[in-house]
Amino acid sequence: MIVFKERRRGRGRYGGRKCGRGHKGERQRGNRPRLGFEGGQTPFYLAIPKYGFNEGHSRRRQYQPLSLQRLQYLIDLGRVDPTQPIDLTQLTNARGVTVQPLKRDYGVQLVEEGADIFSAKVNIEVQRASELAIATIEKNGGVVTTSFYDPRSLEILCKPVVFFLRGQPIPKRMLPPEDLVRYYTDARNRGYLADPSKVAEARLELAKKYGYVLPDITKDELFKMLSTRKDPRQIFFGLAPGWIVNMADKKILKPTDERLLKYYSS
Amino acid sequence: MTSRLATAAEPPRHRDPRELGDPPSRALPAPSQPRRPLGATPGMECLPSRGRRRPGYRSPGSTEYSKFLLRAHGCRHPVAHPGGCQPGHPGAGTPLHTRRDNGRGRWDRHHHRGGAVTEDPRARRVRPPEPPREKLLLSPLPRSPVLRACSVPVPSHLSPVQAWVESLRHHDDERRGLTDLHPDVFAVRPRLDILHAVAMWQKNFKRISYAKVKTRAEVRGGGRKPWRQKGSGRARHGSIRSPLWRGGGIAHGPRGPTSYYYMLPMKVRVLGLKVALTVKLMQDDLHVVDSLEIPTADPQYLLDLARYRRWGRSVLIVDVNEMPENIGTAAAGLKTINLIPVLGLNVHSMLKHETLVLTLDTVTFLEKKLLWHDTRYSALYPFSMPYSDFP
C-alpha cells in the first residue's frame, strides 16, 4: 500500500527555517565563487586550448533548408503552383519558407527529407541543392537550377511589394564572390553560370548513378515553362534591371538614357 | 427551392415563438378594442399602444379562466361581485376550483378506474393549422422571403442563421423579408472572456496617465544635514526632504507620464467583433434594415420608432459610408441614437448601446472583412501596404 506523507514544512514565507539555503558556509551566506571556478585548479574552460571552430560564425552564409516533403506539401495544398517556375518569391508568398536576409541568410537550400515520396514536376530555382535532391526532382521530370543572390537582391526578391513602394529602379543582381564562383559554374550543382551542354551531361550521369530513367523534357507539354531561366543579372522573371514599377498607377517605367541602358545591360 | 420555402415558413429559431405565430404578412387584422395611449410622454398619444393588449397577442398561460384575476389577497372571485374585495367577504379563502394533476405530472389527461380517460377541457391544445386566408398586400411580395444570401460561401457542416429585414420608412414596417447571416460571424461561440479582453483593451490602450510627483532629489532644498548626527537629542536625519518628512519627496509615487498601450493580436480583436455581433443577434438586439431612409428629418420620429419597436434605450445604427441626409440630421441631435460608419464599429459601442441596427450592405461588408482573417496568410509586411488578396 502506498502511503503519501505530507511534506514537512518549516512554515513561513518561502519554506521557512533555512529557506532551502543549506547549513552555514558560503552556500547559506551567498558567497559562492563564480561559475566555472574549480577551487583553484585550472578550470576546464581555460585548460582546453582555443581553436577557431566558431570563429566568424556570425559572418558565415546561411541557407534556409527546404525539404522535398515540405515542397510536396505546399504543392498538394495548392499554395505553390507547379505550372509556373518556382522561385524564392513564390515560396515566400506561399509562406513555405521564411528567409531573413539581414541575418546572413543567402537563400534556400534543397534538403533530401521526403525524397521517397516526392512526385511533382517543377521548375525550381534555389541557392544550394544536394545531389540526391537534384536527382529526385529530375527523376520526376523537373528542372533544378542553383543561382546566387547578393543580400540586397535577396531582400528585394523576398519582399517585392515593399521594394516597389520605395520607387527605386530594380538593381542588377551581383555576381557571386570568389569562393562561390566555383560552385555556381559547376554543372554537377546545376549552377546558373555553368555550360548548358555540361548540365545535360551531368543529368545523364546522375541518372546512371542513382539508377532511374531520365525523362525527356523536350517532349513535355510544359517544356517551355520548364526551360525558362533567369538571366544572371535579372532578379524577377518578367522585369529587367533598371525598370521602376509604379504600383499605384499600375505602370512600369523603363530608362531611355544611353548610359543607363549600357550600365543595366552590362 | 423546397427547402428554402420550408425554412421560411417557420420563424427564425431565436425569435420568441409567442409573437410570431403568423407567417410574414403585411396587413395586421383590424383592432377590436380602441387603442390606448402610451404613458405620460408628451407627443406619444397619437401612436397605438403595443403590448399585452395588442390584438392577436396571447400570453402563454392564458386560458378561458384568465378573467378570474388573481388579486393580491388571494381572492379568485370574478371581476364584479357584491361586497367588494375585502378579507372578510363571503367566499374569501375558499378556492372556487382546484386544478389537480393526474398524479403523473400531466394536467390535461386524467385516467380513471375502469379505463376511462377524460381530457381536461381547459388544457391548452395545439392550435390546428389555419386555412389560408386572403392577404391584403400593400405591395407585391418577392418570390422567396430570403432577400439576401451570404456573400461568402458557408461551410457545408454549418447552416446560416437568419434575421428579419426591417425598414425605417414606416413605424409598422417590420418583417419585409429574411436575410441569411454567415454562421462564422453571427453564430460563433459566446466567448465572454474575449469580449471582456477586447473591451478592456479599448478602454486602456489609449490611456496615458500624466501623474508625476517629485522624489526627494527633485524637491527644492534638502541638501544640507539639518542638525549634527549626535548630541542634539533629536532623531538623526540627512535632509529635510526625505520621504519621512512633511514636505519631503514621495518615495514610490507615480513617475512621469505612463503609457498603458498594448495591442491584442489582430485575430483576437476580430473574434471580439464576431462574438459581439453573435451576442447581439442571439439576445434579439440586432436588427437588419434594408436601407436607412426615413420620411422626415425629425429626431422625434427615430425616438418614436425605437419606442414603438421596443428597441431599448439606446440604438447604434451602422452604415457603409453613404448615409441619407434625413437620418444624418435626425441622429445628430440625439444622444441615445447614434450613427457610425462600419469602420468605426467596435465592441465597446456595441455593448454600450442596447440595440444594434445594421443595413444589408453593412452585413455584406462585415462578413467579407471579418471572414478574411480566418483564411489569410500571416503578414509578410504590414497590412497597410497593398496585398493582392486583401478584401
Automatic annotation (TrEMBL), chain A:
Main location: mitochondrion
Keyword Aminoacyl-tRNA synthetase (UniProt): no
Any GO BP annotation: translation
Transcription regulation keyword on record: no
Molecular function per GO: structural constituent of ribosome
Family that this chain belongs to: Belongs to the universal ribosomal protein uL15 family.
Keywords: Mitochondrion, Ribonucleoprotein, Ribosomal protein, Transit peptide
Biased amino acid composition, Basic residues: 1-22
Large ribosomal subunit protein uL15/eL18 domain segment(s): 65-145
Protein name as catalogued: Large ribosomal subunit protein uL15m
Localization: Mitochondrion
Highest taxon above the source species: Eukaryota
GO cellular component: mitochondrial large ribosomal subunit
Region (Disordered): 1-37
